[in-house]
Specification:
9-stranded antiparallel β-sheet; alpha+beta; 31% strand; EC 2.4.1.207; globular
């Protein structure tokens, strides 16, 4: 018995040593922004895609002739991807600005996708943020969540980021995690697992984007322009290790393995207690709708990765909408001094949001 226990202990020590050695040998992720030409190329839109003079940011425009977009030069198998985005103001109903991962060009019938979609609105109303994932073409089982934002996204750029590992997907806004999708066996192929490229687009989503399609895009307000900057492509490119520090050398398989270790041990992929608490606060204050608590959409089916401890369930109606968060319950202080300050900060231009400081219930 003692011999067996000693052998087991020795095996555990060897296993932990292997893990520690892998972590020590693995490079760390380089999350510094890249110039547009280094990581991306135009996708569509012609002159509606405008590069900045320094080549580090891009403006995407939508007008009556076309939208526009760009795509990463590499496909990635896991990683951390981020863009800072400044949205158009005034009347933007029907406008969709998207930053997402997809492989629909390679797997049109069973593609994977991880989405940030920013949904425009009529004048005086807020932009809304939607996140979603698909795996193996599971578009009939959408996993949408929608949020109000705690800031005016038309005044300054704000960072939207995805950390995608073999075991989880974490969505971030300005460094705060807002959603975590943990891979569980019951998800099957619904978890995105194939290499994906990174996309950014602006397009006409009048059919559904603003209050279910009630308000349409009005080209009298065109062109609509979204600015993308601080472009981060930090992951495991198919066929090599590009944006990982120290990724050169070694075999392709060992480089790929070291990249996966780097991705999974990166700060962005680790949900600490403090980050989880910040995520709960964000969701309680800003989450408008989640499919995880919608008992009608899929005839009572609850996705296996949803709210395992039930901590959020009491905050939502049976149709998935929040009991705590709604546009009608969000108010603004309208002090003249604050109005003048905001107007000056915005360059004396109109804002999509009412002037003032946002209050959250």
């Amino acid at each position: 018995m003692a011999t067996g226990a000693a052998a087991l202990l020795a095996l555990m020590m060897v296993s932990w040593a292997a893990v520690l050695a892998a972590n020590a040998a693995a490079p760390s992720l380089d999350t510094s922004p890249v110039p547009f030409e280094a990581g991306y190329m135009p996708l569509f839109g012609g002159d509606n895609l405008v590069r900045s003079p320094d080549g580090r940011s891009v403006r995407l425009k939508l007008d009556a002739s076309t939208g526009s977009g760009f795509v990463s030069k590499s496909a990635y198998h896991h990683g951390y991807f981020s863009a800072s985005i400044k949205l158009p103001d005034d009347y933007t109903a029907g406008v969709v600005v998207a930053f997402y991962l997809s492989n629909g060009d390679v797997f049109p019938g069973n593609h994977d996708e991880v989405d940030f979609e920013l949904l425009g609105s009529r004048r005086g109303h807020e932009w809304r943020l939607q996140t979603n994932i698909y795996g193996n073409g599971s578009t009939s089982r959408g996993r949408e969540e929608r949020y109000l934002l705690p800031f005016d996204p038309t005044l300054h750029p704000h960072a939207y980021a995805v950390a995608w590992t073999p075991t989880a997907i974490i969505f971030y806004v300005d460094g705060t995690p807002i959603r975590e999708v943990v891979r569980v066996p019951a998800m099957g192929g619904d978890f995105p697992a194939k290499p994906m490229s990174v996309y950014a687009t602006i397009w006409d989503g009048s059919a559904w984007a603003t209050e279910g399609g009630r308000y349409k895009l009005d080209y009298a307000y065109a062109p609509f322009a979204a600015d993308f900057s601080a472009l981060v492509l930090s992951g495991c490119p198919v066929g090599g290790v590009e944006q990982v520090v120290g990724g050169g050398g070694g075999s392709s398989s060992s480089s790929s393995a070291s990249c996966d270790v780097a991705v999974m041990t990166a700060e962005s992929a680790v949900m600490t207690p403090a980050k989880r608490a910040a995520m709960r606060r964000f969701r309680r204050r800003h989450l408008l709708y989640t499919v995880c608590h919608d008992r009608y959409r899929y005839n009572g089916t609850v996705f296996p990765e949803c709210d395992a401890d039930g901590s959020e369930r009491g905050d939502f109606h049976k149709w998935g909408e929040s009991k705590l968060v709604s546009p009608s319950r969000r108010g603004y202080k309208k002090k003249r001094q604050q109005q003048r300050a905001n107007k000056q900060a915005a360059g004396d231009r109109p804002s999509t949001w009412p002037i003032g400081t946002l209050l959250v219930d």
